């Protein structure tokens, strides 16, 4: 394809970067079962998601049980070895090329160029030596042309305006005061950050939303598209409601902030303006469309990022982009759907949906999910026909058709809707029970469900209490750290004494010292003694929040003290310090301030946020427009169905789980196991030290064999995959008796 751009020189040149490639965001996750010995559950599926992403439940894998096919349920022994293939995809956002160009174009022309590649634009051509763009000058009118090879399509990224930082890192761009902890508002174009005192001066009346006055008229930085129209707390404080509404509306709707069409490449072709309009205005458009390369199966409506599994099902038969390529999603299964080789996870889904995939078939799949083999006339079945397929898709992070998929689509087809499982039908509240052994991560999953699916996940009051819990936790972590410091100091002093007595015997004159790198001054020592005493007496929460104000200044001094730094370096040797402590300790000074407000991520990581017996429930529907960064899949859930997620701590179930009867009306039990527990120990009901993985299995067996749950579906989530991945490198699985006969031979356990 060949494009021409007329170039016209005007005005002084602002500096721009021309990004040459737009990596699609999201993390490609594929899962592969490399070795499944003696797992007596016939239907097995695996999902894997990183904890760092709010959209994921947690770093976890899941095994879905299809109870109907499962014989010998009571002797479930998941000794399967699962290898995960978490190929890290390209990082989120937009990667920039080294090619920087000086542009002299006026703002207007820059904007219109982004919407239509034929419009005029001006370049300083000398900067293009190494780029893919070539120039020629004709009658003093420079013409830039560039070739777009359809096989090697790179969407044209919008030019970016970069901010110039004057002050030190983290300071406000205007007054140059503050540090990285100071609350700031960022410009959507150049990312200049302003403190609360400067934001209104720096951004003026914000006719295009949060942009510096000098950036008005410029397109936004695409990595910030997700935050368009989402007001920050700072702005809410500075402006009144009406002003906030106006600014946010302008930010979302003004022309210059809209997505430029040629930044979106579909099946190898950059879109034209008309194509983008078609795509965005169809009955079921891709959600949160960003610049990047996508593939689109026009027959079935499957849509995905180039080289990745499908992420949504959009309206079929749209006249956008080129024809789909066989390697569009980088599949390697030799099974094809509408000309595209599908990925392993899709193959897994097809198998679970009962589709015969032996013999490397080429399927023809229609928008209603009906499928036939290429060259044959008869419909072989419906992908969505089997009960549970949609749920499997949800857990494999594969898209399911939404009710908007097609007017004649599967949801309006009686044949198919009859087979949709109960828990996705409208009207009823579908209850899920979430349980697991202590520390398996159930609270985290529960909080994530709230954050993802509730409009107001936590009330003001709840946030206030959570803030207090986090602050108390931080003092507790500090206490544990200070305890570690004392131990390290004693050890060091002991070693010092030993070496000094050695010097004595060898005749050197020793100089007795009582200080080590772990020693602290008297002021901090007094605080340390007080904190440790308070912790021992169990009164830590009784003296807060008063202590927060009183002792906060000391924390900064403490945190900067070299002895504490040396102790923190050795935090891995302090068994009592949970791994999550680092997340909070590194921001201890900020967190212990009175004006600290916990972010959703803080709440997610915080310990002790759910009630002590762990009984809690949350009712939700999947939002039509999912919260930020949840990806496209979540958007496709049925937004009318209502769900209730109930969680209870294992100890809240009583002896032999007698209280399980209370949950007889749940439709699915989600059981959570921490994969990294295989070398951890805890005391069982008789006070015997037992491997935690085995304790987890016992609990699972008790629940799965409980008479109340005879007909219940179970979903097993293998959680803390990230910790497991790290641990398995140096701690053998055989440390757990359950896996003592595990000898992987040449099979690689490691996912990468
Ligand atoms: N690394 C890692 N940590 C996790 C993951 N999920 C949860 N955690 C952490 O594990 C700890 C225990 O998680 P919780 O969600 O409180 O687990 P729980 O089952 O409710 O535990 P209890 O309330 O102690 O019974 C917390 O510190 C979490 O932050 C995960 O996927 N990866
Ligand atoms: Mg918990």
TrEMBL record:
Segments for region (Disordered): 87-118
SMART domains (UniProt xref): G_alpha (SM00275)
Entry keyword annotation includes Phosphoprotein: no
Chain residues that bind Mg(2+): 443, 612
InterPro entries: Gprotein_alpha_su, GproteinA_insert, P-loop_NTPase, XLG_GTP-binding
Superkingdom assignment: Eukaryota
Keyword Metal-binding: yes
MF annotations from Gene Ontology: G-protein beta/gamma-subunit complex binding; GTP binding; GTPase activity; metal ion binding
Record-listed GTP binding positions: 719-722
One Pfam family hit: G-alpha
Single GO BP term: G protein-coupled receptor signaling pathway
Keywords, alphabetical: GTP-binding, Magnesium, Metal-binding, Nucleotide-binding, Transducer
Protein's name in the database: Extra-large guanine nucleotide-binding protein 1-like isoform X2
The organism of origin for this protein: Cicer arietinum
Upper classification of the organism: Eukaryota, Viridiplantae, Streptophyta, Embryophyta, Tracheophyta
């Amino acid at each position: 394809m060949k494009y021409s751009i007329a170039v016209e020189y005007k005005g002084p040149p602002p500096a721009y970067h021309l990004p040459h490639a737009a990596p699609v965001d999201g993390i490609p996750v594929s899962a592969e079962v490399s070795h499944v010995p003696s797992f007596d559950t016939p239907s097995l599926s695996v999902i894997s998601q990183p904890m760092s992403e709010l959209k994921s439940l947690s770093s976890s894998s899941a095994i879905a049980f299809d109870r109907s096919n499962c014989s010998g349920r009571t002797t479930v022994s998941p000794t399967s070895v699962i290898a995960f293939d978490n190929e890290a995809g390209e990082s989120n956002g937009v990667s920039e090329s080294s090619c920087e160009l000086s542009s002299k174009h006026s703002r207007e022309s820059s904007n219109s160029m982004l919407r239509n590649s034929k419009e005029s634009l001006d370049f300083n051509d000398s900067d293009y030596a190494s780029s893919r763009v070539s120039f020629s000058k004709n009658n003093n009118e420079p013409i830039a042309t560039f070739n777009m090879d359809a096989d090697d399509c790179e969407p044209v990224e919008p030019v970016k305006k970069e901010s110039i930082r004057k002050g030190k890192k983290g300071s406000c761009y205007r007054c140059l005061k503050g540090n990285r902890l100071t609350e700031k508002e960022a410009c959507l174009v150049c990312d200049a950050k302003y403190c609360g005192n400067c934001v209104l001066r720096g951004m003026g009346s914000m006719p295009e939303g949060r942009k510096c006055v000098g950036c008005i008229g410029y397109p936004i930085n695409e990595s910030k598209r997700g935050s368009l129209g989402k007001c920050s707390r700072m702005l809410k404080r500075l402006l009144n409601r009406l002003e906030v509404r106006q600014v946010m509306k302008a930010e979302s709707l003004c022309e210059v902030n809209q997505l430029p069409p040629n930044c979106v490449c579909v099946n190898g072709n950059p879109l034209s303006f008309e194509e983008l309009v078609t795509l965005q205005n169809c009955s079921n458009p891709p959600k949160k469309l960003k610049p990047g390369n996508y593939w689109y199966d026009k027959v079935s409506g499957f849509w995905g990022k180039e080289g990745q599994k499908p992420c949504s099902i959009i309206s079929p038969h749209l006249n956008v982009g080129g024809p789909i390529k066989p390697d569009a999603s980088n599949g390697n299964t030799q099974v094809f759907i509408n000309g595209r080789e599908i990925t392993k996870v899709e193959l897994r889904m097809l198998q679970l949906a009962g589709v015969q995939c032996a013999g490397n078939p080429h399927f023809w799949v229609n928008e209603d999910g009906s499928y036939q083999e290429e060259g044959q006339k008869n419909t072989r079945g419906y992908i969505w026909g089997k009960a549970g397929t949609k749920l499997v898709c949800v857990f494999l992070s594969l898209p399911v058709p939404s009710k908007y998929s097609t007017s004649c689509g599967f949801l309006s087809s009686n044949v198919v809707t009859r087979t949709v499982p109960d828990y996705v039908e409208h009207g009823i509240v579908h209850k899920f029970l979430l349980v697991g052994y202590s520390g398996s991560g159930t609270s985290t999953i529960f909080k994530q469900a709230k954050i993802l699916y509730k409009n107001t996940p936590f009330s003001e009051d709840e946030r206030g209490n959570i803030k207090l819990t986090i602050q108390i936790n931080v003092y507790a972590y500090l206490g544990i750290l200070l305890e570690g410091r004392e131990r390290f100091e004693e050890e060091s002093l002991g070693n010092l004494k030993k070496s000094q007595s050695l010097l004595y015997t060898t005749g050197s004159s020793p100089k007795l010292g009582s200080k080590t790198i772990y020693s602290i001054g008297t002021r901090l020592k007094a605080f340390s003694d007080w904190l440790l005493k308070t912790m021992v007496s169990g009164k830590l929460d009784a003296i807060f929040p008063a202590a927060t104000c009183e002792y906060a200044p000391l924390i900064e001094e403490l945190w900067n003290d070299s002895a504490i730094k040396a102790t923190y370096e050795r935090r891995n040797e302090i068994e009592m310090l949970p791994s999550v402590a680092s997340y909070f300790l590194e921001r201890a000074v900020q967190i212990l301030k009175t004006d600290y407000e916990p972010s959703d991520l803080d709440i997610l990581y915080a310990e002790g946020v759910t009630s002590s017996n762990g009984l809690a429930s949350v009712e939700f529907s999947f939002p039509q427009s999912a919260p930020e960064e949840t990806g496209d899949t979540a958007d496709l859930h049925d937004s009318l169905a209502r769900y209730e997620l109930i969680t209870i701590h294992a100890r809240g179930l009583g002896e032999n789980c007698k209280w399980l009867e209370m949950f007889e009306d749940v439709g699915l039990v989600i059981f959570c196991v921490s994969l990294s527990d295989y070398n951890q120990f805890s005391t069982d009901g008789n006070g015997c030290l037992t491997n935690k993985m085995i304790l987890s299995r016992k609990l699972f067996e008790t629940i799965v064999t409980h008479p109340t749950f005879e007909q219940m579906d179970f979903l097993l989530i293998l959680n803390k995959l990230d910790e497991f991945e790290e641990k398995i490198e140096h701690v053998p699985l055989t440390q757990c008796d359950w896996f003592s006969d595990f000898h992987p031979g040449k099979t690689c356990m490691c996912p990468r």
